[in-house]
Amino acid sequence: MKLQAGAWDRLLRVLVPLVILAGIILAAGTLEKEPMGPDTASVYVQATVTQVLEDHTGGEPFVGVQRVEATITSGQFAGRSCELENANSYQTGALCQEGTRVIAYVRQDAEGQIRGAVYNYDRTGMVYLLIGLFAVILLLIGGKKGAAALYALVFTFACVLCVYIPLLYIGTNGILAATVTAVLILAVSIYIINGWSVKSLCAVIGTTVGVMISGVIAMAVGGAASLSGYNSDYVEALLGMDARIDIGGLLYAGVLISSLGAVMDVSVSVVAAMQEIREKAPRLKATELFASGMRVGHDMMGTMSNTLILAYAGSATSVLLYTFGMPYLKIMGDNDIMIEILSGLCGTIGVILTVPIQAGITALVLQPKEKKKR
């Protein structure tokens, strides 16, 4: 039975990204990763507390220590019992009682005994439940478009883990790694959701230019302000690794990747609106079409800028609270605060500049056919 053109297109929009996805996952699997931390003999496992042997917490979270017995439920020691030390602190440990599920790091001594410590609560089940709820809601409300969006989201997540991070790990320049990842995510995501067309090509070009502008501005401002990846969190741990990581470029790569979603949203919306205008008014001049695209973009600038700034503010709530009442000059000299300001403003500038860039590219591509012939 022969497939119609529309059916072939839908089939290819599933199979082509699937082949690319399989390729990048297999390629990432060949990369040898260096274990993090000095204790490489320990392994992380899931466990369930069966008995509290000693309790010096008074039943209060974040204070005291415990010694518990637990049954390991995952990994090479699954089914075996062990004793775990539990430092009930803010960042690690858990307030344990019988039945508490935890993640622990354990090791086997020379006598075959398994000992270790509680790392934190086991939240994996809740994460999987939330992911399932998100997928169900997206499919129920979005229908076929929701399914395509979910597929594109899986592809995006795989690209970040299997392309972006490995490229950084082997020492690729941060901006180059982020640009390659962004273009791959853009091209395939737009193809999955909308198929391949002139509109898709315009959106990919406009978004790529927009995110690169964000990265270049971040590099220029960061260089002038003496900010780089060396001022970021976890730099000490990264410096201790043998991997050839371009630590200086990590900050700028992060700005580029974090602005990708907002820039893509603006680009696709402007292109879609301009294509609709072109179909309704095919004799519209390129300059008039550009002006229409700008008017559409003006309405999006404020909302998307707010979206990006609020996203950064939300992720930096603890930093913002920490600065409450802090002297102004101390705030302006704090690395973490300056990095958040740099990321938020450079990403927002990229979103704003994407509007005229995308409107200009789309107006040039969609100009009247008679004009093109002349």
Secondary structure elements and their pairing?
Elements: H1 5-29, E1 43-55, E2 65-72, E3 81-87, E4 101-108, E5 114-121, H2 124-169, H3 174-194, H4 198-224, H5 235-239, H6 250-280, H7 286-315, H8 317-323, H9 328-332, H10 335-365, H11 369-373
Parallel strand pairs: 3-5
Antiparallel strand pairs: 1-2, 1-4, 2-3, 4-5
Helix pairs in contact: 1-2, 2-3, 3-4, 3-6, 4-6, 4-10, 6-7, 6-10, 7-10
Q: Overview of this structure, please?
A:
The protein is of the alpha+beta class and about 375 residues long. The chain folds into two domains: about 45-120, OB fold (Dihydrolipoamide Acetyltransferase, E2P); about 145-374, Up-down Bundle (Multidrug efflux transporter AcrB transmembrane fold), CATH 1.20.1640. About 60% of the residues lie in helices and about 10% in strands. The chain has a five-stranded mixed beta barrel. The chain is globular, with a radius of gyration of 26 Å. The mean pLDDT is about 85.
Give the key terms.
Multidrug efflux transporter AcrB transmembrane fold, 5 strands, 374 residues, single chain, alpha+beta, 12% strand, 2 domains, OB fold (Dihydrolipoamide Acetyltransferase, E2P)
